[in-house]
Specification:
Elements (H helix, E strand, L loop, with lengths): L2 H18 L4 H8 L3 H9 L6 H11 L3 H5 L6 H49 L7 H20 L6 H24 L10 H14 L9 H9 L1
Helix pairs in contact: 1-3, 2-3, 6-7, 7-8, 8-9
Length: 224
């Protein structure tokens, strides 16, 4: 089966199960956190969902992923070949995700190992407040994870990581001034309040939104 035929087949199945579930394209898109334009492209065979989204679609329709890929007119041999191909794709996707998680874990371990090394060296030299090394590791770890996830175009945890980075930097500045200069500048944390609000609003701005359609297209979507 060529790619174009497979795209059309998957799109036809998505449209069929969506209508069976009494959902419009906009309604399905909202449940999947996609735009209705993306759903429309799937159903027209212009693009296909990724493996994770196929699983979400199957769960939404209470079917299996194979049902979304199946061709009603296909011979059993073709179905078996399709199932094997899908299993291989799923296996590669899960393996890639596992490898990324290992890289993230190793990166975090490296950050905290460096913090521990700095603590051991400073404490061995009887330098006071050497435990600050662990506090500085918090925003550094967040920056490392944020950089890796952004490079992989995985933005799911960016809001949390940016928040941890911001509050961690404020805590580092506060504790450094307090312990070394005896200057209790606790009001620094007040800067985090508008900063946190800005972070929440920024990520809300880029959440998938339902794209505007002309009235005729909206009526057609409602009738689908």
């Amino acid at each position: 089966m060529d790619d174009e035929k497979l795209k059309l087949q998957i799109g036809s199945n998505i449209a069929s199960y969506r209508k069976r579930a009494n959902l419009t394209q906009a309604g399905l898109a909202e449940k999947l956190n996609y735009s209705d334009k993306a759903v429309s492209k799937w159903e027209r065979g212009e693009s296909v969902p990724d493996v994770i989204t196929l699983v979400q679609l199957a769960n939404q329709f209470d079917i299996t992923v194979n049902d979304l890929l199946a061709d009603p007119n296909a011979l059993p041999d073709n179905l078996n070949t399709l199932e094997k191909a899908m299993a291989q794709v799923s296996e590669k996707t899960l393996k890639r995700k596992a490898n990324k998680n290992i890289i993230l874990a190793l990166s975090s371990i490296l950050v905290w190992f460096v913090a521990l090394l700095v603590f051991v060296v400073l404490s061995s030299l009887s330098i006071p407040n050497s435990g600050l090394a662990f506090l500085y590791a918090v925003p550094v770890n967040a920056i490392v994870l944020l950089s890796l996830r952004s490079a992989w175009h995985d933005f799911r945890w960016n809001r949390i990581l940016i928040s941890v980075m911001m509050w961690g930097i404020l805590a580092c500045i506060h504790m450094t001034l307090l312990l070394f200069l005896r200057f209790n500048m606790w009001k620094l944390y007040l800067l985090g309040l508008p900063g946190q609000a800005a972070i929440l609003l920024w990520f809300r701005l880029f959440q998938p939104v339902r794209e505007k359609q002309p009235p005729a297209a909206q009526e057609e979507a409602q009738n689908d």
